[in-house]
Design a protein that fits this description.
Elements lengths: L2 E4 L2 E4 L2 E4 L14 H9 L42 E5 L11 H6 L3 H13 L3 E4 L7 H9 L4 E4 L2 H9 L4 E4 L4 H7 L1 H13 L2 E4 L8
Parallel strand pairs: 4-5, 4-6, 6-7, 7-8
Antiparallel strand pairs: 1-2, 2-3
Amino acid sequence: MITQIRPSIHHLGDQIIWVSSEISKGRNHFDTELTNGIYELIPNITWEPVYTRYNSMFELDFPCDLVKFDESKFVTCEIPDVPYVTIQFDSSRDNEPDSNEKRTHSLDENWKIWIMNKYRSMGFELVDIGGKRWSLEETAYIIKHSQGHVGAVSGFSIFSRCVGDNFIHQYYNTGPRELMEAIPEMHLGYISLFAKNNIISFFRDPNLNI
């Protein structure tokens, strides 16, 4: 059984997996690649369209272990023969009107360039997995053989941990103070989930000259 606990996160026993918020609208909306692909990758999961919306975030089980995908379902594809990290910077918020979430989560172009140069300087090739370039099964294979995942705060950070990536570094477009002022309820909920699953968050330093 999948029990809805808030848009984008669903409870699977004592484990959780990030899925598209479209799932909260019911089984008829399971037509996106993200949700369909996710369910193909989760091992031994059965579901029924029964949803429970909790009244308080104190009822949510955020600090729990993320489910691991079934590696036998990954699809082989071409990958670099040198050490690489996967990157993903595109966001569903990029084309939205100005909002708190867009200001904190949609990365400025100069910030993206600084981040990419950082990992290139560490000797990694960069493989962009955004934009649905591959199926989720192929994307999981690419992530599995990478040295880590780098990108904006998005579902792919969670997805990468479900694959079992070596390191996951996710970046905000603001500092922690600005994030907490803009959307405190979101960050307070997710910070324990990220910490429990070794997903490292980085914040933009306003003193950084980029």
